[in-house]
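Notebook entry, structure prediction.
Reason for the run: the old model in the group folder had no record of what sequence produced it. Starting over properly, with the input documented here first.
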Amino acid sequence: MTLRAGHTLGLEMEMAVARRSTGASHPVSRYFDTLAALKAARGEAPDLVRIGGQAVGVSVAAGESGLDNGFNLLETAFAPVSEAQGGLAELARRVRRELNDASAALHDEDAVILNASEHPQCTLDSSWYARVHVPRPIYRELVGHREWLHRVGIDAKAQNSPCTSVDVSQAARALNVVLALAPASIAIFANSPLENGRATGLKENRLTVWDRMFRHSRYAGDHYLQRLPERPFVDLGDYFRWMFAPGTASRCLPLAVEDGYKSATGVYLRGAPSLSAFLASDGWPGRRSDSGATVIVAPQGSHFEYSQFAHFLDARWRYRLAAPLPLEALREAWRQPGGIEALYESLGASGYIEGRAPGAGFADAQLLDEAGTQIAATVVMAPSALQLGLMRNLSQAEDLLRTWGWLRLRAMRADAIRDALHDPAVLALAGEVLAVAEAGLAPAERHWLAYARYAVDARSTGADRLLRLWREFEGNPDRLARVCRARAVVPL
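New structure, fully documented this time:
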């Protein structure tokens, strides 16, 4: 049985934090202890998540409230919500509760969540990075070994990532649609025109992060994997051939695959082969990340599943398998059209499209004044509604993709980043995407697109409103504080 798209919905909500009194980017300190107490008082039985004894998250049944790359950038990963539980409406209720909790916990530190997808005035220098980045073991690989310029994201570049379940048989089609039509989402939810106290000339400067982070990587394939390919993916086998192609370099693989993503101990494969070359071998020499000792790593199907996070496009297909992935079956299926889909269906695959194009956006006093409460109350959920509508109206969304053309849409991404809805072609695309998404939603769900419709009709994005505020307070010695207080999140 093919499950329809959006059988479950999730969300990864990132939130930039600022000091209320000054507007400066604020690394949280007591936040997680305070948040845990709030959730405990509601009977949610929170567990504190720690790294090296330092609290970095609070986990409850509804999800995990944690951090992205720095203590100045909060991230809540909501547990999936099913249609039977209420779908978009129930997810919205959980988002509202989380924003209330986060705002209350931050109040104890004289801090607020900003309605911005990047802090407007924060340094990117190495000393700030050393002070505020989260000490995850994986960063030793990414920064120390792969030589990523990870600090270009340490000014709280934040996204709003809808997670929409999709049947494995439809995964490649859904991924193509979300990737190709990303310029519409980038433009509608653009919210980062400033960096380090200066107007960048871009409406969504946040999305320059991947090019800058990987441009001088030790492995050229890392930069390759943040650029949309020249054609849509034919099927999942094609998607994985692109991701693990010759010229790409396998990530550090876990010594014990069950340790999972971001595990502490891994193996760097000698000569940095592609994952496809490693999986085709009988075994590969490598160096342990903890001791430097040489080991021979035998390929397993689980290495393939583990490596699904290897690229940084505007959307990913993320999945789990209910049964182990046999290596020989993987090798055989990967050679067949539709083979991965058939194999994964037999292994009980469940997966979703993780949208990465929409910038973080929230209700604030400025938006409430300009658009009203009903529209402002839909800001956080609008990307989820948009993605759900497209995936539930997949054939019409594919028609839209074909009409505009893959290569034209790929080129329009830069236009959306620069000008958002003030680019005429991007504006036209956004209107057509909204229409297709609206047709894919049930009548009772369509109101969640209200903010997106407002942005298109008014040609007014979060970035446009932030620029107006920034210019209004030019020359004021309290400019940053005034702007950040005006853009403080109002939970609705």
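Summary: Residues 249-309 form one domain.
The old model has been moved to the deprecated folder.
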